[in-house]
Design brief:
Alpha-D-Glucose-1,6-Bisphosphate, Chain A, domain 4; 3 helices; globular; seven-stranded antiparallel sheet
Length: 165
């Protein structure tokens, strides 16, 4: 395992959608709650709420919650070009880059998470845990954008860990 990169990973998925819908899926409260989060709160530089249908922008802050998980993830939007690139802090000092590329009738969504610390807890919970989590959520993004079916487990009778939570 010495050649294994514990500091970053990249995942890609092709989705039959438009660039605008794919970009909005990451950058609006209304859209990101349809496939990823139970609650997203985005605030501007002054702490004011960003309206649910508005795209977030560089410097905005977020507080995110998931179904059936207690912790809140807080971070900052570090880049948002309004078209095909979005970057945010995640899991502490990690960065997540979202790149979108139109390929025929599909948008390829490429997610790269990096700056992952190499202590045992981070290698386990961030490198391995986030890799698994993002794989599911990217598939759920595809499902929601292509057909409207949300695959997330929201039923408290089936508490995590589950494949879909």
């Amino acid at each position: 395992m010495k050649q294994f990169d514990w500091t970053s990973f990249t995942q890609r998925i092709a989705i039959q959608t438009t660039m605008e819908k794919a970009y909005n899926a990451w950058t609006t409260k209304q859209s990101i709650e349809q496939w990823f989060l139970s609650t997203a709160v985005f605030t501007d530089h002054n702490g004011n709420l960003i309206p649910a249908k508005d795209n977030v922008f560089e410097g905005a802050k977020y507080d995110w919650n998931w179904f059936l998980y207690e912790p809140t993830e807080s971070g900052k939007i570090t880049s948002a070009n309004g078209v095909d690139f979005f970057q945010f802090t995640f899991a502490g000092a990690c960065l997540v880059d979202i790149r979108l590329k139109q390929v025929d009738e599909c948008v390829v969504v490429e997610l790269k998470q990096y700056n992952i610390p190499t202590d045992e807890a981070s290698m386990r919970s961030i490198r391995l845990g986030c890799h698994t989590g993002w794989a599911f959520y990217l598939v759920n993004l595809k499902s929601v954008l292509e057909g409207g079916l949300d695959l997330r487990n929201k039923d408290e009778r089936f508490m995590p860990p589950m494949v879909n939570s």
